[in-house]
Amino acid sequence: MIVRIPGLLRSYTAGADAVEIADCATVADALVALDTRFPGLRFRIVDEQGAIRPHIKLFVDGDLARHLAAPAGGVRELMIVGALSGG
Amino acid sequence: MASPRKTAVAARRRTTLLIATRKGLWTLAADASRRTWKLSGPHFLGHIVHHAVADPRDGRTVLAAARTGHLGPTVFRSADRGRTWKEAAQPPAFKPGSGRTVDHTFWLAPGHPAEPGVWYAGTSPQGLFRSADGGATWTGVDGFNEHPQRKAWCGGDQDGTPDGAKLHSVLVDPRDPRHLYIGMSSGGVFESTDAGSDWKPVNRGVRALFLPQPDPEFGHDPHCVRMHPAEPDRLYQQNHCGIYRLDQPAERWVDIGGTMPKSVGAIGFPLVVHPRDPDTLWVFPMDGTDVWPRVSPGGKPAAYRSVNGGKTWQRQATGLPKAQAWWTVKRQAMTVDAAPTVGVYFGTTSGEVWGSRDEGRTWKCLARHLPHVYSVECS
Fold first, then answer.
1. In angstroms, rounded to a whole number, what is the distance separating the alpha carbons of residues B121 and B55?
2. Which of A48, A51, A55 sits opposite B69 (nearest CB)?
3. Per-residue pLDDT in tens (0 to 9) along chain B, 379 residues
4. CA distance to partner chain B, nearest, from residue A73 (Å)
5. B84 interface with A at CB cutoff 8 Å
6. A–B CB contacts, 8 A cutoff, strictly below
7. Which of B82, B149, B180, B262 has the smallest number of CB atoms closer than 10 Å to its CB?
8. Domains of chain A, first to last
9. Which domains does chain B carry?
10. Is the dihedral of CA B238, B239, B242, B243 positive or negative?
11. Which member of A45, A48, A51 has the closest CB to residue B71?
């Protein structure tokens, strides 16, 4: 699957705006795979209790994933978005 | 021509300030006379940097506690005085299943000189964390985070101060690495004599006007607590309800804010102590009347110094704006250097950094147009 990386996380991916990872059963598995390759990235977007942080949105083939258990098997794209957070 | 040794000594003595702001980290480096300052940065532009602290034990490690509006909290580490940075492999985080999440790491404190590489971190909501490897990995201090009384001491995670309840002022006794203090807003001051395995409240004599009891055991709101490095039995605190001194083994804090001018009051965030004289300290008052404006009283900012342990205070405002200056100095945003004539420095909520090379008698603006300053520490 392709993971779209927002600007705010590209310091972890050496500037890459998209990376390819192996297919995963769930969003949780995809983020573990991503963190193995880019250590530290997961904790910036998922808290220690496994909740997606308040201003982060994850889209699986365009559908909003509200929790990490969301299925990701066979999807083409996981998009990570920094939602509105201003000031 | 100066000898290489003299040049090296002068270079070591030069003051560099770490300026952590709501939008990144800057440094201000002084020449040997502390008259000329050079601003460098930013590092981590756009990150909310709550605290940046240099390690006095090795003279090269710097830690910075950061987050952004979107991204979770982390700690960055430099082993070369801030030239290059690496992220902590395991930042402070509560245990999975605890139901608690670190919103941000608020306070960083190097450990005891006999324990190189040990650091402590205080978080919002209140949590205490320890690193034994120079800030690369952090684990919770269970003796506090899992203490059966913790919730009673601190209240719920949604209670507390406007920007989130905080654990701050992690103090390590220079005589004993197992002797620790912490301050909590809200919660009060707590002491451990067993390296954090157990804790007891140390708040007697401190007012908590927002609580129904007249002299509660805990639940207070210390803003900043300092231990004097040369006389570690002496503690000072700037509290939400005044300024206090504790000389252990006495168990009651003594109110030393009552002699401040009535028009200024005894409310503020920061308090700093002279590096050698236990009787000399500085505070920077703010307006804590009616709706708590939290600005310089009357728009006229001033530091106040005491040279007798808080019996009397002198206003120190020469060089500061005389009117219409409505800023505040946050609790980590005031510090001192260790020069023979001590330098005193502070950063403002309006993005200015001010310094005095004569112990507060005269002030000069060292930098302006920075973001809201959260902390100023000497490196």
1. 13
2. A55
3. 444 444 444 445 689 999 999 999 999 999 999 999 999 999 999 999 999 999 999 999 999 999 998 999 999 999 999 999 999 999 999 999 999 999 999 999 999 999 999 999 999 999 999 999 999 999 999 999 999 999 999 987 766 677 889 999 999 999 999 999 999 998 999 999 999 999 999 999 999 998 988 889 999 999 999 999 999 999 999 999 999 999 999 999 999 999 999 999 999 999 999 999 999 999 999 999 989 999 999 999 999 999 999 999 999 999 999 999 999 999 999 999 999 999 999 999 999 999 999 999 999 999 999 999 999 999 9
4. 26
5. no
6. 56
7. B262
8. 2-82 (3.10.20.30)
9. 83-378 (2.130.10.10)
10. negative
11. A45
Q: Which residues lie closer than 8 Å to B346 by C-beta, 6 or more apart?
A: B270, B284, B303, B329, B333, B334, B335, B353, B354, B376
Report d(CA A20, CA A22) in Å as an integer: 7
Residue contact A48–B102, C-beta within 8 A? yes
Helix/strand/coil for B298: helix
